[in-house]
Specification:
The complex is a heterotetramer of chains A (298), B (501), C (351) and D (339).
Chain A lengths: L3 H27 L7 H19 L2 H25 L4 H24 L15 E2 L10 H5 L2 E2 H19 L1 H11 L1 H7 L3 H27 L11 H11 L4 H21 L6 H28 L1
Chain C lengths: L1 H28 L4 H14 L1 H26 L7 H18 L4 H30 L3 H24 L30 H18 L1 H11 L1 H6 L4 H27 L11 H11 L4 H24 L4 H15 L2 H4 L2 H6 L5 H4 L1
Chain D lengths: L3 E7 L8 H16 L3 E7 L5 H12 L4 E5 L2 H9 L7 E5 L13 E6 L1 H17 L10 E6 L4 H17 L5 E5 L6 H13 L2 E7 L1 H14 L2 E6 L2 H5 L4 H4 L2 E7 L1 H14 L6 E5 L6 E3 L3 H6 L2 H16 L12 H10 L3
Parallel strand pairs in D: 1-2, 1-3, 3-4, 4-5, 5-11, 6-7, 6-8, 8-9, 9-10
Antiparallel strand pairs in D: 10-12
Helix pairs in contact in D: 1-10, 2-3, 4-5, 4-12, 6-7
Classes of the chains: A mainly alpha (298), B alpha/beta (501), C mainly alpha (351), D alpha/beta (339).
Bound molecules: adenosine-5'-triphosphate (2 copies) and magnesium ion (2 copies).
The site of one magnesium ion (MG) has 6 residues of chain B, from helix 14.
Chain lengths: 298, 501, 351, 339
């Protein structure tokens, strides 16, 4: 019953927001800032994309607005933790609360509806047909024709890896993330590096949000991120500090989710099916950690 | 050239680290700064290098008033600093560490080839040999020290600050470093040099400024001042007790090590068929260039890891498989080299740091007795002359030397049967160092078997009954500490040029 | 010392007032009775015994969860399973109360115990995986929270569901198992006393027992603990077991104290509140109490405003988020100049 | 005279596009109809259940005349509160209190027979396939996307299946539960999986999650059935293409019911102390027959639906309820229609 032809695109769809948000978490984590507020940033991005694309009737401007909205919230988080020196985790939690309340309020102000932006004629981001690959018999439909942000997310993985490993900013981020005092003593502008990383993180979160509201569906609805930011946090930790690892973890999480979704209706109680996507990653992590531990013992 | 005028510094927590400090440093000289632990030396240097801002006072360079407010600003003034606690990043490579913040670029990327070449060039120019591609965390402390120095020199540096650079170096390495420093001075650099070792100060410096409790207590050309006088200016009064070396108290070894082999991932930790015997009352010194296997030896002997081959016995009985907890219950004590990483916690109070491990002795029913613990700690603070706000201050509020004393007091106070002391006096002022050495000897005298690891050969020769030299994880010499044994005699063994096992 | 602590408290309160003024006053201006809005928020929760009761009702589970998180964080672990433990603890307690054939007075304690053990698994499993394999307890607990939710719902659906009820809720909790109420006119139940006692015991454990001390050593610096020969993995696991038991017990207390049946269909969020409480309390079990009461006040005040005026509760939520950030903002609460303005002595003078 | 005061306590948040929003709409209609003679208010109590009782108590202490709550979860709260405040009137939608205990003379309870409306939806879905309106290559099965596996959702499901079976006795129904009411992306993914598996038309009963099914229908080029409110209307202006995929919606007229209850209250004829179960007969549930349905469904099918409706109204057809069916029977039922 599970047809590969349908499953692969499903996996990519489910994984895309996790990859994008996971990369966002990854970038800020490398600079030593655990971005708990990623969920809220995604939500803001999702709303901004819908609103601006509806107002301008230009999906790309919507996307830009989504990215900016994520970055603006990231800047707010930065104000909280850098300027006010508030607790990082608590600020992240507060940001999520504020984003949920704020997007609902903004939606209400704009549409008179708290639940859904359906009265706004917002646009979606296009699906992309890859020129040559599209024509290959089986591979074509699997690899081509996905949302532009799906490709952007996959493409961003090497870019982030290069950013972190090959650029002066990445070097500074890694230094700051590992030992901020030492980095400061060397003259690395710790604050600027962390703020930059956080802003980049916000951009990714905004893109992840835009994918939900302008790719997956064509509207914003209350709390539509539904905990994906937290899953992205997990994906980053499971990626062991590598962009590729984060992507692999996001794909693993997305794959289990997609498979269990298409397993519904086979008589397994739905609650148990819904538990599986959360159990498989734990299992995978244990297996990995065990192998690593054994390797290190030698 | 550099003038400090009325410089004062009060830390936000109220500690007055410097008050009204004023003196000048002449261009092209090596200028030593001496003072006991917590005298304010590092603070003054941090002000000069832009890490701290003075609360009052001014600094001028070549008559120009300057006020570096960041390390970057200081670097722009030509000031580079080698920190007492390294400012290096473990997961980055040597090249990345040295060039952090000033990487050569190609487009938006770091030009790795060029960076590497620049580091090799720097290393060659200053004859400081480093592997540009090694990950920093895998390097020995001495190698890290070189990286730190290269880093300070990598920016067009005219004023070089060295905060206790020799504390972790072995004598041959120290000598090598001194030759470089003299060459640097001759090429026109001004060098500020902080050390607790008068011999080094004498060998290098033209001028010495002494600080005591945040004030300048003396400032004189080296030629015009005697060692005793410096010691007096530093400590208020001079006085080094002569040490009578302890003698083994029985023929039976307390600790026996046979064929001990450790195949660690880190080459610096590897051990190859080590044999040792330490008798009660004996201090066995371990000499060797840093990274010759000392760390591995300590790990295995403290139960932090298990050897791949060989055996360890206490009183003739094997302790195979015993972990740190089990060994401590048998009477192990260990003063670690890295005092803040392993020896204590900056966040916990002095009382908690001083009595951790022994805390189970302070129980009343299921509860601890805080009063009694604080009282004991007060006693330690008095006996070890710890400069601190009180027994409930966090360890982090102490200067490194004073923190070291608290940690030593804890380990020495546990009535050990086997004591491992690893660099016990590194970075500690003369008075405190003497005190700690006295304590080690007293413990040995009371029948404890002591293993002493130190990069300071004078210390080894002063305290040890016997000295074993490690090279590349192997014992290359085992020598009784008789009057013929000198640093010069140990040198070739340490560098692996000679073997006499 | 006391003087400085008082100054800190006064400063924190002042910050609360300023934030309320900055956010709530402009909102209040849109209303017919602006003064009423502000006073309702600030003092409304104290005006009637029932509302004070509401604060305490809300604070009770927050204390349990905050305490659990504080103990776990102190041991250097970052286990977020408190959320799932609270949920599963509630479910386990209700299940036990429904199933166990025990006489009246024994039913509640037995059910709570069973619930605590069952619920703690959400914290214990990540703890074991961490201790045994070094797998990140952050990730596994985050995941297991959801797994616990869905598995719990399955159990509820298959074994505990009351078919006579028109929703997925359990049978009614037997009256014998319900916790006695303490104060007439409120729903304050005996659970609050247990929560206070738990926080007190938690403080005693952490600061006055060998085990607690060892836990703090391991949390402050694991390699120091290893140097002392302490079993860091075991200490971490112990804290996670303890935290899991406390959180799950809190879930059971919540059920037996305030609910008629188990009716959660999603994670209730008390665990997240617990993280907030623990951070506000700087991981100090005794400070968990005021932190939980503070959050309870924030909630009740916000609800009162949203209920009685034409101010959307999202606006109140925004202000609450801002308050959370500002009361932990070191730049404000630790600012020496501000502290001095509130009567603190400068630390230098104190020496 | 003093205006009558009515408050609606939402045990969740507005914006669910389901009965909370519809209830709020009903409140607006009351206000619009009675103007200054009433004072209305909607209070969101959030999802923390421990706050609900406190809020009901507050409202009861206040000077409200009529207090409205909905969903089964509120029943237990009304049981506790209503007897304490006998001079208040309580309206409970979609829940009941034990009236036989005699303590609830001030409570009016009303439940919806969503199974009856769903029965019609089932006929429509199966009928569109059976009469060839839906191309054969779309697949032969119909879909159901529920928010959670809970009785009120299954009440829709049971009626839906029965209705479909009345057209095609061996109809296959793909059933999925999302486990969430606000995850549109997940709803879309579940619906896409159903459409991939040969579902031609799906019925969503999952709040905001369910709207994902409409996006899936648009992407897969299949049909969908909405719930509670007219989901075609939701997207008619902003996304006509998606709106065109909504064959119809099963209405649950909470707004109408609330307005009617208040009318009765003002007239003094509100049947307090008892429960009313309202369905097709009372026009409280039903299908949207304008819009797409008008053009899409062929006349015989429309006639068939009308006949079924008449049968239910006159009692010649009874539809099973998802509330009373046992878990085992439910499982058997679901197994029997699995594609
Ligand atoms: N950041 C700080 N905050 C508070 N007090 C500090 C800080 N840094 C240093 N101190 C205190 O200031 C005093 C001077 O410290 P400093 O490090 O300058 O001494 P030092 O002369 O370098 O000592 P050592 O020989 O141990 O290196 C000490 O009492 C120390 O505890
Ligand atoms: N923020 C701080 N608050 C309190 N004390 C501090 C703080 N920062 C540093 N210290 C203490 O002040 C001391 C001075 O710091 P510094 O980095 O100069 O080391 P040091 O004293 O020279 O160390 P060493 O003992 O190796 O000589 C440190 O040992 C540290 O314990
Ligand atoms: Mg110093
Ligand atoms: Mg110092």
């Amino acid at each position: 019953m599970i047809d590969l032809l349908g499953l692969v695109p499903a996996i990519l769809r489910v994984s895309t927001p996790l990859i994008l948000a996971g990369l966002g978490v990854h970038v800020s984590s490398r600079a030593g800032v655990l971005n708990i507020g990623i969920e809220g940033m995604m939500l803001a991005g999702a709303l901004a994309g819908v609103v601006i694309s509806a107002l301008t009737q230009n999906a790309w401007l919507g996307l830009v607005a989504a990215l900016l909205a994520g970055a603006v919230l990231a800047a707010l988080l930065s104000v909280a933790i850098h300027l006010l020196r508030a607790d990082l985790v608590l600020s992240g939690i507060a940001l999520n609360m504020a984003a949920l309340a704020g997007t609902t309020l903004a939606l209400f102000a704009l549409t008179g509806d708290k639940g859904i932006s359906s009265s706004l004629p917002s646009l979606t981001l296009p699906m992309v047909r890859l020129p040559l690959i599209d024509d290959i018999p089986i591979l074509g439909p699997l690899l081509s024709g996905h949302n532009v942000l799906t490709y952007a997310g996959l493409l961003a993985v090497p870019l982030v890896a290069i950013l972190v490993n090959r650029t002066p900013l990445g070097l500074a981020m890694r230094a700051v993330g590992e030992n901020p005092e030492a980095a400061a003593a060397t003259g690395v502008p710790v604050l600027r590096v962390q703020v930059t990383a956080l802003l980049i993180s916000g951009l990714f979160a905004g893109a992840a949000g835009a994918f939900l509201s302008m790719g997956y569906v064509s509207w914003f609805s209350q709390n539509m991120t539904a905990g994906r930011g937290f899953i992205a946090l997990a994906a980053d930790v499971m990626g062991f500090g590598y962009a590729w690892g984060t992507m692999a973890a996001a794909l693993l999480l997305g794959t289990t989710e997609a498979i269990t979704l298409s397993l519904q209706g086979f008589g397994v109680p739905s609650e148990l099916l819904q538990a599986i996507p959360y159990l498989v990653p734990v299992l995978a992590m244990v297996i990995h950690a065990r192998r690593r531990k054994r390797r290190e013992a030698h | 050239m550099i003038r400090f005028e009325h410089v004062s510094k009060t830390y936000p927590n109220g500690t007055v680290a410097l008050s009204d400090v004023g003196f000048s440093v002449a261009a092209g000289t090596i200028h030593a700064i001496c003072g006991e632990n917590g005298a304010g030396k590092s603070t003054l240097m941090k002000i000069l290098s832009g890490l701290e801002l003075p609360s009052a006072g001014s600094i001028s360079i070549n008559g120009e008033p300057v006020r570096p407010d960041s390390p970057r600003a200081a670097a722009a003034l030509g000031i580079g600093m080698v920190h007492q606690h390294f400012s290096l990043i473990g997961s980055l490579t040597v090249t990345e560490n040295i060039l952090l913040g000033q990487e050569p670029r190609r487009g938006p990327f770091v030009d790795r080839a060029k960076a590497r070449a620049r580091v090799l060039d720097l290393a060659a120019r200053y004859s400081l040999d480093v592997d540009p591609d090694a990950k920093l965390a895998t390097l020995s402390v001495a190698a890290q020290q070189k990286v730190e120095i290269l880093k300070a020199l990598s920016r067009d540096t005219r004023i070089l600050i060295l905060d206790e650079p020799t504390a972790v170096l072995s004598p041959p390495e120290t000598e090598e470093l001194f030759r470089r420093l003299v060459a640097l001075r001759e090429s026109g650099l001004t060098i500020l040099f902080i050390s607790h070792k008068l011999k080094e100060v004498r060998a290098l410096a033209q001028q010495v400024t002494t600080l005591r409790a945040g004030r300048v207590s003396g400032d004189a050309p080296m030629s015009a001042i005697s060692d005793d006088e410096i010691a007096r200016l530093v400590m208020g009064e001079a006085g080094t007790s002569a040490i009578v070396r302890p003698e083994p108290q029985s023929a039976e070894a307390r600790i026996t090590v046979r064929g001990l082999t450790l195949r660690a991932r880190d080459a610096n930790d590897r051990l190859d068929a080590i044999d040792l015997a330490i008798r009660p009352g004996e201090i066995l010194g371990i000499a060797g260039v840093d990274g010759s296997g000392q760390r591995g030896l300590v790990k295995v002997l403290t139960g932090a890891c298990q050897p791949d081959a060989g055996m360890i016995a206490w009183d003739g009985k094997s302790v195979a498989g015993a972990n740190t907890g089990a060994l401590r219950r048998r009477g192990l004590a260990h003063l670690p080299a890295d005092r803040f990483r392993d020896g204590g916690s900056r966040r916990l109070t002095l009382t908690e740091n001083a009595l951790a491990g022994a805390h189970r002795n302070y129980r009343f029913g299921p509860l601890l007795k805080p009063r009694a613990m604080i009282e004991t700690t007060r006693g330690i603070i008095d006996r070890f002359a710890v400069r601190c706000p009180g027994p409930l201050a966090p360890l982090g509020a102490l200067s490194g030397g004073n923190a070291q004393k608290i940690i030593a007091a804890r380990e020495f106070g546990s009535n050990p049967r086997f004591l491992i002391v690893d660099q016990p006096t590194r970075g500690i002022d003369v008075a405190a160092a003497n005190f700690i050495q006295d304590q080690i000897v007293a413990l040995a005298r009371s029948g404890c078997a002591v293993l002493l690891l130190s990069a300071d050969l004078d210390e080894l020769l002063r305290l040890s009954t016997r000295i074993v030299v490690l090279y590349a994880g192997r014992i290359v010499a085992s020598l009784p500490n008789d009057p013929e044994l000198t640093p010069a005699r140990l040198g070739p063994f340490m560098l692996g040029l000679e073997v006499a096992a | 010392m006391i003087r400085n602590a008082l100054a800190e408290t006064a400063l924190t309160l002042a910050i609360v007032f300023v934030v309320v003024a900055l956010v709530l006053v402009p909102l209040a201006m849109t209303q017919a009775d602006p003064v009423g809005v502000v006073t309702t928020f600030l003092f409304g929760p104290f005006k009637s015994i029932r509302h004070i009761g509401n604060i305490i009702e809300l604070a009770t589970p927050s204390m349990f969860c905050g305490l659990a998180v504080a103990l776990i964080l102190r041991a250097g672990m970052f286990n977020l399973g408190v959320e799932g433990a609270f949920f599963l603890g509630g479910l386990g307690t209700v299940a036990a109360a429904l199933i166990l054939p025990l006489p009246g007075p024994w039913l509640a304690p037995a059910a709570l115990l069973a619930g605590a053990v069952i619920g703690s698994s959400v914290c214990v499993v990540p703890g074991v995986l961490r201790a045994r394999y070094g797998a990140s307890e952050l990730v596994s607990s985050l995941m297991l929270n959801f797994a616990a939710l869905f598995i719990g719902l399955y159990v509820l659906n298959v074994w505990l569901r009351d078919p006579a009820a028109g929703a997925m809720v359990s049978f009614k909790i037997p009256a014998d198992a319900r916790l006695p109420r303490l104060i007439e006119g409120t729903r304050i139940h005996i659970g609050v006393l247990l929560a206070l006692a738990a926080c007190g015991l938690g403080a005693l454990y952490l600061f006055r027992t060998a085990g607690g001390f060892e836990s703090r050593i391991a949390g402050a610096n694991p390699s120091f603990a290893a140097h002392l020969g302490l079993d860091v993995a075991r200490i971490g696991l112990r804290a996670q077991i303890l935290g899991g038991l406390i959180a799950a017990f809190g879930g059971g207390i919540e059920m037996l104290g305030l609910y008629q049946r188990f009716s959660w269909q999603a994670l209730p969020g008390n665990g997240w509140t617990g993280v907030t409480v623990a951070i506000l309390a700087r991981d100090h079990p005794a400070l968990v109490i005021p932190a939980a009461l503070f959050l309870g006040w924030l909630q009740v005040g916000g609800d009162l405003v949203a209920r009685n005026f034409d101010i959307p509760n999202e606006a109140v939520g925004l202000m609450q988020a801002l308050l959370l950030v500002t009361v932990t903002a070191a730049a404000l609460t630790r600012n020496p100049r501000l502290l001095r303005a509130f009567g603190a002595r400068s630390p230098g003078a104190a020496r | 005279s003093e205006p009558k005061k009515i408050v609606f306590l939402v045990n969740g948040n507005l914006g669910d596009k389901s009965y909370f929003d519809l209830g709020a709409l009903g409140m607006n209609q009351i206000k619009a109809k009675y103007g200054d003679a009433v004072e209305t208010k909607v209070i969101e109590m959030g999802t923390d259940q421990t706050k609900w009782l406190a809020t009901f108590q507050d409202a009861s202490e206040g000077d409200w005349d009529v207090i409205v709550g909905c969903t089964f979860e509120i029943s237990d709260i009304m049981v506790e509160i209503a007897p304490q405040y006998p001079d208040k009137t309580y309206i409970l939608i979609d829940g009941v209190v034990p009236f036989d205990e005699g303590k609830f003379g001030n409570v009016y309870s009303v439940t919806f027979k969503q199974n009856e409306g769903s029965y019609l939806a089932g006929i429509l879905a199966a009928g569109l396939i059976a009469d060839g309106t839906i191309p054969a290559d779309w697949g032969k099965s119909i879909g159901f996307l529920g928010g959670m596996d809970i009785p009120v959702i299954n009440d829709f499901l049971v009626g839906y299946i029965e209705g479909a079976r009345s057209v095609t006795p061996d109809i296959k129904v793909a059933i999925a539960y999302a486990g969430s009411f606000n995850d549109a992306a997940k709803g879309k993914e579940l619906a896409l999986a159903q459409y991939r598996g040969g579902t031609a038309i799906g019925f969503n009963v999952a709040g905001l999650t369910g709207l994902g099914q409409l996006a899936a229908a648009k992407e897969a080029g299949r049909l969908a059935l909405g719930v509670n409110s007219d989901q075609e209307a939701i997207f008619k202006d902003s996304d006509p293409e998606m709106a065109s995929k909504v064959a119809s919606s099963m209405l649950k007229k909470v707004d109408v019911t609330l307005l009617r209850a208040f009318d009765l209250y003002i007239a003094g004829t509100l049947p307090v102390g008892q429960t009313e179960s309202i369905g097709l007969k009372e026009d409280a549930v039903g299908l949207v027959e304008t819009g797409n349905m008008a053009t899409l469904a062929k006349d015989p099918l429309k006639a068939r639906i009308a006949a079924a409706k008449a049968g239910i109204v006159d009692g010649s057809i009874t539809v099973s309820s998802g509330f009373v069916v046992s878990q085992a029977d439910l499982n058997t039922l679901r197994d029997s229609v699995r594609p």
